[in-house]
Inverse folding.
């Protein structure tokens, strides 16, 4: 009878170990697939998307820099941070070669009736210089400015804040409601 106790305790031990292994497997599998760490190549691709590589992004950065340079020269302003946002993109009008052809046909049938038809063909081709990949631009319109944010140390003073506001409004020729000037704070 002792051997039966030994066998049953061995079976119980094997059962407990098996149960623990199955439990651990469920815990591990329950976490779902583990995402592999991002490679350096993926991280740099994400960073490049945020940089201003588009024409609009470059224009925004250029305008911010020009505004910041002008505002920094004003008395009492201190440190300045400028952000500009465009509502629209660049608008370009291209030179076109416009051809209009008008052709009229008069037909008379056996009973004496006449029928007149007019066919008009219009062709408005964009002019491309020989060997060029870009068409000839007749006019290029600036994008519409959506808003300007100026953060300046000296903006706590109402006179400095008003001066910055007026300068931005004058330089960009935009309505007052699209300009916000706030004092710099924090770190």
């Amino acid at each position: 009878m002792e051997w039966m106790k030994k066998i049953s305790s061995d079976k119980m031990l094997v059962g407990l170990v098996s149960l623990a292994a199955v439990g651990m497997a469920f815990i591990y599998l329950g976490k779902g697939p583990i995402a592999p760490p991002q490679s350096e190549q993926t991280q740099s691709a994400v960073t490049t998307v945020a940089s201003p590589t588009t024409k609009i992004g470059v224009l925004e950065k250029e305008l911010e820099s020009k505004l910041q340079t002008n505002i920094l020269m004003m008395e009492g302003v201190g440190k300045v941070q400028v952000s500009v946002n465009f509502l629209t993109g660049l608008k370009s009008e291209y030179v076109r070669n416009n051809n209009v052809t008008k052709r009229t046909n008069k037909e008379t049938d056996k009973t004496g009736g006449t029928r007149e038809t007019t066919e008009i063909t219009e062709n408005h081709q964009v002019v491309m210089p020989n060997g060029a990949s870009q068409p000839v631009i007749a006019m290029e319109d600036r994008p519409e400015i959506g808003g300007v944010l100026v953060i300046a140390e000296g903006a706590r003073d109402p006179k400095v804040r008003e001066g910055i506001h007026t300068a931005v409004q004058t330089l960009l020729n935009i309505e007052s409601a699209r300009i916000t000037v706030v004092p710099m704070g924090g770190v």
In short: Residues 2-30 form the longest helix (29 residues).
